[in-house]
Every structure is written in C-alpha cells, then in structure tokens.
Specification:
The strands form four sheets. Strands 15-12-14-13-17-18-16-19 form an eight-stranded antiparallel sheet. The chain is built from 13 helices and 19 strands. The chain starts with 24 loop residues before the first strand and ends in a 5-residue tail after the last strand. The chain folds into three domains: 17-97, Uridine Diphospho-n-acetylenolpyruvylglucosamine Reductase, domain 2; 103-213, Uridine Diphospho-n-acetylenolpyruvylglucosamine Reductase, domain 3 (2-Layer Sandwich); 217-419, FAD-linked oxidases, C-terminal domain (Vanillyl-alcohol Oxidase, Chain A, domain 3, 3-Layer(aba) Sandwich), CATH 3.40.462. 27% of the residues lie in helices and 25% in strands. The protein has 424 residues and is an alpha+beta fold. The chain binds flavin-adenine dinucleotide. Flavin-adenine dinucleotide binds at residues 38-39, 75-82, 86-87, 97, 115, 137-139, 142-143, 145-147, 149-154, 198-199, 203-204.
C-alpha cells in the first residue's frame, strides 16, 4: 500500500464524508480557491472538493484509486495556464502536480524530468551542458505535463514537430491507479493516448525528453509586410527551405483599420560564427527598409517574454480574462479565411495586450495522433490571444461568442482546433 502522509482535513467536511478518510487531500480554503481558477478567467471559477498535492507516483496511484472508488472527478493541474477551464475539477479532486518537479538525469541527448517541472527549469539545467529541448513554448513557465497534454507548439515546430513529438518515454498512472511506463515501443497505445490527451487518459508522472546541442546565441530578424499574401508566401518559403531555426509571425492591427504583418525568423549561432544574412534573407518580399535584426544570447531569446510578462503582472493585464482562440487553418483556405476574419477584427476585439499569431506548420513533422491537423501538407497556426477588459462580463461574452463563430468558420474550411474548450 502506498504510504499516505498526514494532512489534516477539516472534520466534518460539509461535502463528501469519504474525503475525511484520505489524508493526502487538503480542503484548505486558499488551496480550493487557487485550484478553481486559471489564466483564461473565461469560466466561472470551479472549486474542487479537495486538492491533492502528490510528491510521488505512489501518491498519485492512491489518489486515483480513491477518486475511482468514490466516483469523483480527478483532474491533474500544474501551472493552470489553460484558458478555458481545462485544468479545473468542479466538485472533484484537483491533483496539483507542481510539487513533482525534479530534474533527474541529463545526458547528451535526453533529460528525465518530473511532469510538474517547468520548461524554464529544464532549460536552466540543460543549457550549461550545451543542450536544450528542440521545441520550447514561447512562454517557458508552463509545466511539462501541461504542455505534453496539449502538444506544445512553437517556432521550432517547422523543423522538430511538437513537444509531444520529442518525448522518448513517459511514466504514468492510469485512471485505475496502475503505474505504467510507455514509449513508442512499450505500451504504445498508452503513449499515444497520453501525448495531447488533455489529462483524460492518465497522469503523466515523469518524462524522458529529447535534447539537441544548443548554440550560445540567436540572431532575431523581424521582417515586415503590408500584404497578407506576401507574408504567407514568404512564410511558406522559409518553412520549406528551413532557413531559420525558429519561424513565427504576427498580424498587427493598425489605427486606420488595416493590418500589417511581421515574420520573426531566428538563426542560432555560436560566436564567432555569425549567420550569413544574405543566405537567410535573399528573395524575400518584405519591406526591407523596415527590417530589424538583433543578437541575443540563446537563453535570452528563449526567455524573451519574461520582461513583458513581469510588466503585465505589475500593471494588471496578466490577471485580466484571456479568451484565447487557437486554431489550425488548412493552407488552401488560409489566405481567404484570414483576410475575411481580420477585416472584421479591430484592436478593440483583441484588447490592448492582445496578439494575433500566424505561422506555418508542416504536417509531416507532426506525429502525435491526438493533435489533429488539417489534411493539407501545410497548416497555419492561427491564434487570437485576446485580453478582455477587467470587470466587463459583456465584453468577455462578446469575445467568447466571436471565438465560437470564428472556430466554426475555420472548421468549415477543413481547419481544426488546437486548444479548445474541455469536453467533459
Ligand atoms: C502565456 C502563455 C503562453 C503560451 N504559449 C504557448 C506556446 O508557445 N505553445 C503552446 O503550445 N502552448 C502555449 N500556451 C498554452 C499552454 O501550452 C497550455 O495551456 C498548457 O496546457 C499549459 O500548461 P500548464 O502547466 O499551465 O497546465 P494546466 O493548465 O495546469 O493543465 C493543462 C492541461 O494539462 C493537463 N495536465 C496537467 N498536468 C498533467 C499531467 N502531469 N498529466 C496529465 N495531464 C496533465 C490538465 O488536466 C489540463 O487538461 C501558452 C499559454 C499561456 C498562458
């Protein structure tokens, strides 16, 4: 039997007498309030009956057995950077994975980490040894379990796939409380169910992740465009030719109602071998007078959002509602659909700190069965990362309704949803 630590649970609990029997759980008010919320703040906070704070796989087995026995919803959660309540456990047990965050062995080509570890921790541990995970999310303070449960996409995806495509092995606990190790060759069905599985097929406890050699520096080019068609055409060229290690793009609303576009192309290098600019930029149709180029350390580039996030936290918008929409567009419909959607979208629809992200994804690089992409060889990630005004439920509802309409529109062209509403 797993060893259960003593965590006092108020007695009697008003909700579920069975909870009293289990000492791994806390019903502390602050813990329940924290577990009820997420980054999105688009749903009503859903308080769990209790929060479990496991520090071992045995703890997780015990909690899962308990939840199954008492027919309680059990939902793993970590950094709660979901935007539609995906990590909430209404009237169930929230399994807070943040205490399981050890970085274990690091060798040249792999690192073994607990699922509650953040990608920032992993990078800090591997970079001094000259290695890094091939795909890092734009924001690094997301947990391994959290992003492996959705996919984990970034500007490196055009070369290396998703984070879920770079997992070598997973240790997990299945809903009946059984501990299982899985990989592409060992229990492959479970391996495929867990990656992109949104926490529904078991709890990821530990992951063995691929590492590649890391450069010391990054040259970050920002190429600017006035026209959607040339922006998309250059993105396709850059994706196909693989000129940059990192390739993303944004659409930016202008005060006069039009949109401009930019491509972020980043080439990593180790000094003094600076990348050859001619080779990287030749033949592109960007507005060359507006080209920006900056050199950063490799870590500085990967951690590029840190200063903005600190500012947004201090000024407040980080805590405002975030009705985000993350879709994949099939290449054949991308230009027309984006033109239609953007023509009806203005700065007030995405909010002051909102961002619209557009970049290409080659289907051939993605091998995670649970992440559905359009059937075309190339898809475009299309993310409207809205920031709603605080204390304005009408504005929030309008943005959420708009998201549902746009999702339908994109799906009618053969598009798919990357991060959608939970289906439980
Ligand atoms: C600022 C910001 C930037 C982002 N940037 C990117 C990006 O560049 N690329 C990208 O792909 N996504 C990005 N995302 C989305 C993010 O990857 C997902 O929301 C991710 O699920 C959040 O991880 P988390 O640790 O906060 O997980 P949580 O929100 O706590 O949980 C997310 C989901 O994972 C499940 N889960 C958590 N841990 C486990 C586990 N150990 N085992 C099984 N299931 C588990 C939960 O049940 C839930 O369904 C971003 C989000 C934010 C807020």
């Amino acid at each position: 039997m797993p060893h259960l630590r003593r965590v006092p649970v108020p007695d009697p609990t008003p909700w579920h007498p069975a909870l009293n029997q289990h000492d791994l759980l806390t019903t502390d008010d602050a813990a329940l309030t924290e577990a009820a919320d997420d980054f999105g703040r688009t749903t009503t906070p859903a308080r769990p009956l209790a929060v479990a704070r496991p520090t071992s796989a045995d703890d997780i087995s015990a909690i899962l057995r308990f939840a199954t026995k008492h027919d309680l919803l059990m939902v793993p959660q970590a950094e709660r950077h979901s935007t539609a309540g995906q990590a909430q456990a209404p009237n169930g047990i929230a399994l807070d994975m943040r205490g399981l965050n050890t970085i274990h062995d690091i060798t040249d080509d792999r690192v073994v980490v607990d699922a509650g570890a953040r990608w920032s921790q992993i990078l800090d541990a591997t970079l001094p040894l000259g290695a890094a995970p091939p795909v890092l999310t734009d924001y690094l303070d997301l947990s391994v379990g959290g992003t492996l449960s959705v996919g984990g996409i970034s500007g490196a995806t055009h070369q290396h796939g998703l984070q879920t495509d770079n997992v070598l092995e997973l240790d997990a606990v299945t809903p009946d409380g059984t501990r299982v190790t899985c990989s592409p060759t060992l229990n492959p069905d479970l391996f495929n169910a867990l990656r992109g599985g949104k926490g529904r097929h078991g709890v990821i406890v530990r992951a063995t992740l691929r590492l590649i050699p890391a450069h010391s520096h990054a040259r970050w080019f920002r190429l600017r465009y006035d026209h959607l068609a040339t922006f998309l055409a250059d993105q396709r060229t850059l994706m196909t030719e693989g000129r940059f290690h990192h390739l993303e793009g944004q659409a930016k609303p202008q005060a006069n109602g039009t949109w401009t576009y930019c491509i972020d192309g980043v080439a990593y290098f180790t000094q003094p071998d600076a990348p050859a600019e001619n080779r990287l930029l030749t033949g592109l149709a960007d507005n060359r007078d507006a080209l920006e180029a900056n050199d950063l350390t490799y870590h500085g580039f990967q951690n590029r959002l840190a200063d903005d996030v600190a500012l947004l936290r201090t000024l407040g918008p980080w805590q405002h509602p975030h009705p985000w929409l993350n879709l994949f567009l099939p290449d054949h419909a991308a230009e027309q659909t984006l033109a239609e959607i953007l023509s009806a979208l203005g700065p007030q629809d995405i909010g002051e700190s909102g961002v619209v992200i557009i970049y290409p994804v080659p289907r051939a690089r993605i091998s995670t069965p649970q992440v559905r992409l359009p059937a075309t060889p190339t898809a475009f990630l299309f993310s409207i990362l809205r920031a709603a005004p605080p204390d304005d439920p009408i504005a929030l509802r309008r943005m959420l309704e708009d998201n549902r309409t746009l999702q339908q529109q994109v799906m009618s062209t053969g598009g798919t949803v990357y991060l959608g509403e939970p289906d439980r």
